[in-house]
Write a structure and sequence with these properties.
The radius of gyration is 32 Å and the shape is rod-shaped. It is of the alpha/beta class and 290 residues long. The two termini are 54 Å apart. The strands form three sheets. Strands 3, 4, 5, 6, 9, 10 and 11 form a seven-stranded mixed beta sheet that branches. Strands 1-2 form a two-stranded antiparallel sheet. Strands 7-8 form a two-stranded parallel sheet. The protein has eleven helices and eleven strands. It has three domains: 78 residues, Arc Repressor Mutant, subunit A, CATH 1.10.10; 98 residues, D-Maltodextrin-Binding Protein, domain 2 (3-Layer(aba) Sandwich), CATH 3.40.190; 99 residues, D-Maltodextrin-Binding Protein, domain 2. InterPro entries: LysR_HTH_N (IPR000847), LysR_subst-bd (IPR005119), WH-like_DNA-bd_sf (IPR036388), WH_DNA-bd_sf (IPR036390).
Length: 290
């Protein structure tokens, strides 16, 4: 006897449950002749009729009643085997600091969505300190930050290089005194990666607190500097148009440009959710290959 097929069993179960070949065909998205043929082949292989044909109708008989529970169990087991190799859903939670979240990450999210259109991605834009807290509390799967992170539970690696450029409006630039500590400044708040980098790199040249307007996002810094509120260090990726059209100008002198690494951070002991390895591979690819 030839082996029974799942197609035959599906046809049999649907005819039994629906009470007609027409309705079974609709449930299986097959034509009525295809369902009739599958049922006929099954009965021929078993050597028994599974339905009594009364007029134009089908009524399951004792042979069919005997086969039905086993057929359902076989189909369920087959579905279980198929499910073992179905890709699990991708549901990722990311945190990114402001420059990364606003200017770098959107490109990679778009590229990832093209390869995994079913993926659900949630991105929260915070400062570096808050990003670390999200990772430690297992509220995020991955963080992309602007400041170095040192914690025994977190793995941190350099992701990209970014350049901060010191800028002001041309009108303010003409009025600036010679000493930078007397300039009006616009900066990120304490706890942000950009602020930590500037405090370290400027050292004794870091301006006194009374000269600083603190704002909570990179875009707020950019808008305040455009409005003439002070001098600011802004990522070059956010400056292109404003420098090109003359709304902002470089404040020349020592440390007018500061290079800094951007970091990718993950929890050492958290099991990577489905899709995270693929996203990390995309993020770590050379920019021209992403």
């Amino acid at each position: 006897m030839n082996a029974l097929t799942l197609k035959q069993l599906r046809a049999f179960v649907q005819v039994a449950e629906q009470g007609s070949i027409a309705r079974a065909a609709g449930q299986l998205s097959l034509t009525q002749p295809a369902v009739s043929l599958a049922l006929k082949e099954l009965e021929q292989q078993l050597g028994v009729a599974l339905f009594d044909r009364i007029g134009r109708g089908l009524v399951i008989n004792q042979h069919g009643e005997r086969l039905l529970p086993q057929a359902r169990a076989t189909l369920a087991e087959a579905a279980g085997c198929e499910a073992l190799f179905v890709a699990p859903p991708v549901n990722l939670s990311l945190v990114a600091t402001h420059t990364v979240g606003n200017y770098y990450l959107p490109f990679y999210l778009g590229a990832f969505r093209q390869t995994r259109p079913e993926a659900r991605l949630r991105v929260e834009v915070v400062n570096t300190r808050a990003a670390v807290e999200r990772l430690l509390s297992l509220q995020a799967d991955l963080a992309l930050v602007e400041g170095p992170v040192s914690h025994p539970m977190l793995a941190c690696q350099v992701w990209r290089e970014d350049t901060l450029q010191r800028v002001a409006t041309p009108a303010l630039l003409r009025q600036l005194p010679q000493q930078s500590q007397r300039w009006p400044w616009v900066m990120r708040e304490t706890g942000s990666g950009t602020r930590a980098v500037l405090e370290t790199r400027l050292g004794k040249a870091f301006p006194p607190q009374q000269q600083i307007i603190e704002l909570g996002s990179a875009e707020a810094i950019r808008q305040a500097v455009l409005a003439g509120a002070g001098v600011g260090y802004i990522s070059t990726v956010a400056l292109r148009s404003a420098l090109a059209d003359g709304r902002l100008a470089t404040v020349p002198g020592e440390r007018e440009r500061i290079s800094r690494p951007l970091f990718l951070v993950r929890h050492r002991e958290r099991t990577a959710p489905p899709g995270l390895a693929a996203l990390e591979a995309l993020l770590m690819a050379p920019p021209g290959d992403a």
